[in-house]
Amino acid sequence: MSWNVLLITADQMRADALGCAGNSQAHTPHLDALARQSVRFANHYGQASPCGPSRACLLTGMYLHNHRSVQNGTPLDARFTNLALEARALGYAPALFGYTDTSPDPRGRAPNDPALRSYEGILPGFDPVCPMLEDAAPWLSHLRAQGYDTSVGLRALYTPEAARHDGELWGPARYRDSDSDTAYLTDRFLDWQGEQGDGWFAHLSYIRPHPPWLAPLPWHDMFAADEMPAPQTRGSLEETAALHPWVAWRLANQTRENWVFGRSLDPANLSRAQIGQIRATYAALVAEIDHHVGRILAQLRATGTLERTLVIFTSDHGELLGDHYMLGKEAVFPQAFHLPLIIHDPRREADATRGQVVSAFTEAVDIMPTILAWLGAAAPGQCDGFSLLAFIEGHRPDGWRDAAHYAIDFRDIALGRPERFFGLPSEACSFNASIDGTHLYVHFAGLPPLLLSMEEGAPWRNLALEPAHAPLARDQAMRLLSWRMRAEDQTLANLLLTETGVVARQRNRTPDSA
């Protein structure tokens, strides 16, 4: 039997955006139904932000401190293998619909190589069947063919119509729902998949619900702004800024543009109406994604293909949506990293766990080893993640991790803004974080640590600065250090040159608890 693989990512989707995750206001019937026939991982975390670094983690199976593609535009070292290359070695021709935001390694390239003028490269190994980069060129061609005036430019097309209802701050998109970027990419995938036999491998990378936040009708009208839940804030803006110098700096330096084209929004001081409209539009974009995932699943079912296809639905990173007075995904708070993960394994071995929810901490770096294990291949030595097939087959591996980890490298190579503000060298502008069931610990390379209690009703202050909590902060720091040391690049460390040749020790593929 020839197996198929479909990896779907929805850019900037939070874990709690789905109805199956407990969101009573979400409209995600197709993903909820998929979860009932799959395993949903409730404590799944991405490892980095923004898009380029997070996708490098997902597609190489490596932590940020190992692959070092730390910003959008920071090259990904060409020596690393990746999911697409490994699948190609197994006889697949991995197809890409969308983007990977892979900045190519400039070494060995001519200085004037056009590939070095954009961070939006395609991960080596993928066949870009329908690339959708920031210029959205194929989509614009489609819109022109449908009679839209694309001479006004992409930004104008992404600017919403005027408000049509009382209390509405902005209206729907200027294009029909059947012509949206999400619909277009889905159509191209369905056309391609319909011509395939078995033995295909595809990565469908949606831009939504990433900003700019506008949705076409009827999705725009699905949610009322004044009925959306308020953001999660555990203290005032001033109390949140007082948590840590970097948190204060981020709050003061959030962009006011690009969330909704034609609108200026101050993330730290959103009105109730503004945040309601943002959340309503975000929920609408999630509902639209769900609809089109439903179309894909329907085609796979109708052709009998779903029973031979591993389907994975996840995201690259999350979104604050006004939580803690922030928009976007560059923050210490878990909303920027907590992601949906649904894995539908059609094998008989997965029948006993259909509909189950796994509460163990899983990470984006686990996706590549999981797919390769499902295809019967070993994960390459560079991988920091671990296969999730044991969970899908009904048991928890011994020594599984007891925390999730994520990181941001906030250096600014072009302008040096945080470097100047904090008086730090670029290599000190980063943090590693671990989150367990009770605490979030954030260790900065050049700034004080941050320790927050995640328990409901706990004080909203930095416990790392309080003498009474010094033992707890010490233990958290020691645990994070131990994890970081074990998670260093092991590519060559387990090889030894001897008189009889190269001796290799197989890397332990179980993540011992810290």
UniProtKB/TrEMBL annotation:
It comes from the Bacteria. The keyword Hydrolase applies. The keyword Translocase does not apply. Residues 4-377 form the Sulfatase N-terminal domain. Gene3D superfamilies: Alkaline Phosphatase, subunit A. It holds the Pfam family Sulfatase. SUPFAM superfamilies: Alkaline phosphatase-like (SSF53649). InterPro entries: Alkaline_phosphatase_core_sf, Sulfatase_N. Keywords: Hydrolase, Metal-binding. This is Alkaline phosphatase family protein.
